Amino acid sequence: MRQERRPEDPVRVDPRAYLKAPVVLSVNHVSKDFRLPTEQATGLKQAFINWTKGIKGYRQLQVLRDIDFQVHQGEFFGIVGRNGGGKSTLLKLISQIYYPETGSISVQGKLVPFIELGVGFNPELTGRENVYLNGALLGFSREQVDGMYDDIVEFAELGEFMDQKLKNYSSGMQVRLAFSVAIKAQGDILVLDEVLAVGDEAFQRKCDDFFTEIKKDPTKTVILVTHDMGSVKKYCTRAMMIADGKMQAIGDPESISQQYTLANLEAERVEAEARQEALGGYANGLNERCPILRTRPVSPQVNSGKEPFRFSVEYQYDEPGDFYLAVAVHDIRRGGITYDTGPKVMKMRHHGHHTVEFDMPLDIFNNGEFRLITSLRTPSLTDPRGTDAVGVALDENACDFVIRNDRNGDYALLSDRALTISPVSSADVEEEDQN
């Protein structure tokens, strides 16, 4: 049976088409600083004393440094990065909520910022009144909001509730109304900050259809900040990654998604090492008998799945007698143990401090995030067929890897290449041509 195109599959467009369109947003070498208070003067006398001592009472925090890029009309442009990297500050600069210390920002067309859901909504006003209030805050006249009103109400599916006060709405109803105002506002450039996954499942499907359609409109431009790499690859024509206030990379969504994933893995490793250093002693899961046990990637951590994933295990075990390495594959996103080598499969020949490499085929897996956890084991004293763990490679000593490939699905663990359910009789199922 031929595989039906899944709703989550990305819509394919020519990624270079935007190059022919005019530039609608130009960010030219922009930097932004904030002053953070360090010492507060309680009166004029203390302020004078601080001034004579050269105490400023604040420290300068540089949030963005030399950000420079352009967005063309019709693009769906993604901005990604870890928390604290400066993404939301950049959106507020683009939306003219903040102004840069250096550089300039040029916008061509009507820009509609939607950075926080429900900002500007008044719970004491009705849904109808809040639509007009929010429209005014976005810079639209009453006549312009009149023209958008029916579309907003229809998309939010709140027609019978628009004359009720907002405080009587459920949280889901408020989110739907706020989001509908944002995306139905008749602007040329829509700026969104982490607001794609809103409402219930049915409303999310509706939003998905909307963004699929707006992506096809060459007159509409969307700038999206998100941590969801699925959304980046599904919607965006280009993406940019920001880290520590600087632009790290800009390019096609797949490459930027991979860089972001690798940055997360590296940050988690550094954080785990910092925790271990603070605790002192042996790493979590290790001890005097097994002081070293590390699992490290040899292959790239972002893997297409077409080639085996190679990894190494470094261990130290000096006691005489048989011992084994067991490797378990944990599914980070879906949960559970995907695979385990078994406690007595990999019997080691060499005692002492050594490193061995292993290959693991990934072809049968769909996309996902996985973690390899290795344990060093010795024959059990109570169970002749079992083993006991001497040490386990956890936290920074575990190995994370990611499978990303357009041929794969995202929902189930096993791909159609590993398992396909077919009818016993072809007469019972109609096969459709999906091409």
UniProtKB/TrEMBL annotation:
Residues 44-269 form the ABC transporter domain. SMART domains: AAA. InterPro entries: AAA+_ATPase, ABC_transporter-like_ATP-bd, ABC_transporter-like_CS, ABC_transpr_TagH-like, Bact_Polysacc_Export_ATP-bd, P-loop_NTPase. Keywords: ATP-binding, Nucleotide-binding, Transport. Belongs to the ABC transporter superfamily. This is Sugar ABC transporter. It comes from Bombiscardovia nodaiensis. The lineage of its organism: Bacteria, Bacillati, Actinomycetota, Actinomycetes, Bifidobacteriales. The gene is rgpDc.
